[in-house]
């Protein structure tokens, strides 16, 4: 894995946006995997700024969400479909049809999961997948003990994830109990992975993912199997790393 450590969360967003923009410069019709949660917001805002102010062409992107809650209507502001409309489709100038999200409202949720896999395959697979990491090491909503080769499926959210995400809802009980998420095997098929993490509360999960054994107790550790993975961290998120001399661009020796 390439691990890049930067002083602040703003530096993380700018550096990660560079990685995405480089990819888009090489292939404007990039298939971009988009994470939700707070971690990638700075990347989306920086890309949108470059589109507005520097003419970055985002018009040919095709985007795929990592996951979605079940039981929330698309229009519900807490749904990931609504998040991606606000943070990606609108500011990137993309029609909603180009931002695909698993359909968590379908009665046959397993079928919805399979169809989502098919839609990723039909787009030619994901070129660059943006990821955050949960405090328990989850990526997407693949909670600890997920199969390392899992596919898109329905999962129950852990108590820790529901409590972590309660900040986005009016009351803790409003957090859905289940989700549809790309599996770890699905994520590993993306041609390039870009994980961002900021803040001390992610430090333990980041250390387990980067330096721990590959193990289902830390789903993000499966990224060690991927040949083209970059982690962009701020100093706080990197604070429990102990093994390597990680890249710190711009720092004087
Ligand atoms: C959420 C999402 C993940 C996200 C993670 C971290 O539950 N399903 O895709 O990466 O948890 O969230 P945040 O970036 O808000 O800390």
Please describe what this structure looks like.
Helices cover 32% and strands 17% of the residues. The chain is an alpha/beta fold and 253 residues long. The chain has a single domain, classed as Rossmann fold. It is globular and about 50 Å long. The model has no long low-confidence stretch (mean pLDDT 96). 2-amino-2-deoxy-6-O-phosphono-alpha-D-glucopyranose binds next to helix 5.
Tally of discrete structural domains: 1
Strand order of the largest sheet: 1-10-9-6-2-3-5
Number of helices: 7
Helix/strand class: alpha/beta
Outline: globular
What is the succession of H and E elements?
A: EHEHEEHEHEEHEHEHE
The termini sit apart by 23 Å
CATH class: Alpha Beta
Q: Any idea what the CATH architecture is?
A: 3-Layer(aba) Sandwich
Rg, Cα atoms, Å: 17 Å
Distinct ligands, ions and cofactors found in the model = 2-amino-2-deoxy-6-O-phosphono-alpha-D-glucopyranose
List unreliable stretches of 5+ residues.
Answer: none
Largest sheet: 7 strands, parallel
Give the helix proportion (percent range): 25-40%
Mean pLDDT: 96
Strand tally: 10
Instruction: Write the CATH fold name.
Output: Rossmann fold
Measured by DSSP, the beta-strand proportion falls in 15-25%
